[in-house]
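Researcher: Let's try something more involved. This one mixes different molecule types, so please make sure each is placed in the same coordinate frame as the others.
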Amino acid sequence: MADELQMVLAGADERDLTNLAEYRAIGGYATLEQARGMSREAVIEEISSASLRGRGGAGFPMGRKLSLVQPPEAAGKPTYVVANADESEPGSFKDREILSRVPHRFIEGCLIAAHAIGSRHVFIYIRGEYLAEYEVLKAAADEARDAGVLADVTLVIHRGAGAYICGEETALLDSLEGKRGQPRPRPPFPPIAGLYGSPTLINNVQTIANVPIILDLGVAEYKKIGPESSPGTVVYSLSGNVERPGNYELPLGTTLRELIYDVGGGIPNGRQLKAIIPGGSSVPVFTPDQIDTPADFDSIQAAGSFLGSAAIIVVDDRACMVQLALRAEKFYMHESCGKCTPCREGTRWMVGLLEKIESGRADHADLDLLRNVCDRVEGRSLCALGDFAVWPVRSYIDKYRAEFEAHIDGGACPYGGSSSVRGVMAPIDLHRHLPLAEVPA
Amino acid sequence: MSSLQDEIRAAAEPYPDKKSAVMGGLRLAQNEYGGWLPPEALVEVAEALDLTPAHVQSVASFYDMYNLAPTGEHVVEVCTNVSCALVGAQQVVDAFSEELGIRPGETSEDGKVTLRTIECAGGCGYAPVVVLDHRYREPTRPEDVRAIVEELRNG
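Model: All components are placed in one shared frame. Result:
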């Protein structure tokens, strides 16, 4: 039986930790004082030794990023900390929980990270839709500023305006600089030339929220939690066809079975499990026989997918996989920024072919073509969105091929009108509203 | 010089480069201009930040939350991404469509309500997610829709 272990969210069930006094009452910001008494190198060494891996999706070691950022004296210009709160991977809603329930722990992490790289500037990029979360975060930041907690650090909260691509770190930086959010070629990587061309540390909200925990607990204690290669807890986001969806913080390496059945209460209405998407809609799908895979970075990858943002989407047997693929692909088509041709054009090809298959108008050559387009888009764009557009579609084809073929052979969707995701085709023109002939006063 | 431009310039102060305030500036302008960005609003943002209107428009057209056409008095947004879809988002869209007599992308005849679908709002565990005038309503089921529409019409 898997038990929740609250570290990032610790104390939030008992107290209102959006309040500075309450956060201080459980030792909040004491770790920041401790860190400010340490050398930069010592702080970086702690984070590196703890093997803290990025919780935003890529699992990159934070310690490595920290040690790559040139100090301002050497760079001859200011350096920056940028916190990525542009959570928008479908299935993911963990950062929202952190921002709205433990904003001070996150701010404390930002300030420790700033100290570690010798920066005096923190930018938090929060997705525009998170209005309630922005209000909580802003109130917490104002309270911290008024109490002198920020010391000589400036903290700016920058609101996005609805673009998935801005969760990609270099697109985020362009957006923060006042441009369209489009990814940059790398190298140079942000630690060398990031925001305003200066050395920049950029990390996800949850990664940063782990920083005070590591310094507080000590590396040895921290590393006792979860697997050796990716220690600590993670906030798993459970959604889809599961009895008790929600955010649950547990040690990394909790198995998908424990998460879906013990924590999540299993599949509702006596339905059968059909598919598990283990890391947000962009990652390759798992079939039910992979349910005993531990949900940590390396185990999920060894099993052929990615932990991503630990967003686990549960799919029951009522869902047509072609419709689901089409729904996912329309999202990536809409969110492709248009900079790289394979992603911009490939997503349109994939949507077109999937529509043809779903409507029963396709032949087997179309399915082969779709599979071929996937291979031609993957790995050919500046950022991972092109890959994200491929992985769901290709994995659905490879693992549920008979279902795709049934659409072709039967000349129609075998689910008739009974699929749980029927109708959800989200024509992207419906995201914008039509101009009105008459403007309401 | 308008007070909107003063506000935008003030919003630019925390940034090392005032160009960074273009997104915040567009948000302020959209509020000022009644929920959308007519060409004059883009020009105001440009003037406040010493940018070209073309650049400001390129930014405004990139992000979903900037409205380049007028909306109704209220905006109802329904997430139909994967997690919401799996638990019946389309039925919620259909219920709003029926109640309002419009399709997603349209505004009701009285100018009261614009209905549109959106991509993942980050409420997947509380699905289906509906966003009413920027505030999340989680979860929203088809049977909730009639009362919501009534409130919007009277509000």
